[in-house]
Amino acid sequence: MRLNRFDPSSINVRGGGGGFPGGAGGGIGCGSLVIALVAALVFGVDPASMLGGMQGGTGQSPVTQGDGSQQSVEQLCTSNAYATESCNALQSLDQTWAPAFRQAGIEFRQPTLVFYTGGANSGCGGASASMGPFYCPADEGIYIDTSFYDQMARQLGAGGDFARYYVMAHEYGHHIQHLTGVANQIRSIQSQNPRAANQLQVRMELQADCYAGVWAGKNRNLIEPGDFEEGMTAASAIGDDALTGGRVSAENFTHGTSAQRAEALRAGMQSADDSVCDRYMQG
């Protein structure tokens, strides 16, 4: 996907502690069981349910690294190729979704992309790289240890730039759900009806997949040959049934099947219409 280079003055980016953003070819030193857990949780796990509660924080200012220095947005975004891709995607996502919110008369706020290595403190509590990329509604931050992308390619066979953009766009989808109030509504219903919690979480994940597709569809002039296939491969690779080899029943799914995730991404891409994604919250 041919995204424009980021403008450091137009995006919110900061470091999240634990060192500098991980580089291509790096790893996080996890065993295979932890890597499997990463795969099972990636693309939208709600950290509010697993990180020590919801805490305050704006996530807007730069953070001091271990050596006492501060990194600029430019430095953070050019620390490695994956970081640059992530910043390019963030800018495109901001530019794509802001007009949609204005048209709908809903306040739009840019999320903050937080690069970290190994571990970080988020507005939702302590975070570990073993969680994979995640969105924290408390500080409106998208947290990424970029070394995950190497693991995604090796362990799941989901490589290519569009597969990585899909990660960003999916997490951004959770930001959209946060801004529209859908996320709070679902959490409220889940607390009232715990038996339906997993089913509702699946709906959230599929809608975020659909939103990722809408972003790509609205920028179809930037799509390159092979991008669609990379997206379908990534979506299929992280279905609950694929990740567990069918060992998890439909009642225990939290993200949806491979077929469901691929279909949600496809629906968004083909329509380029975010209203199509409302289907996942209906019924």
From TrEMBL:
One biological-process term from Gene Ontology? proteolysis
Lineage of source species: Bacteria, Pseudomonadati, Pseudomonadota, Alphaproteobacteria, Sphingomonadales
Instruction: State what protein this is by name.
Output: Zinc metalloprotease
The entry's localization annotation reads:
Membrane
PROSITE patterns assigned: PROKAR_LIPOPROTEIN (PS51257)
Q: Which domain of life is it from?
A: Bacteria
Alphabetical GO CC annotations of the entry are: membrane
GO MF terms held by the record: metallopeptidase activity
Residues that span the membrane, as ranges: 20-45
User: In which broad location class does this protein mainly occur, judging by the first location in its UniProt entry?
Assistant: membrane
Q: Which InterPro entries match?
A: Uncharacterised_pept_Zn_put
Per the record, membrane topology reads:
Single-pass membrane protein
Keywords per UniProt: Hydrolase, Membrane, Metalloprotease, Protease, Transmembrane, Transmembrane helix
Q: Which organism is it from?
A: Tsuneonella aeria
The record's listing under Pfam families reads: Zn_peptidase
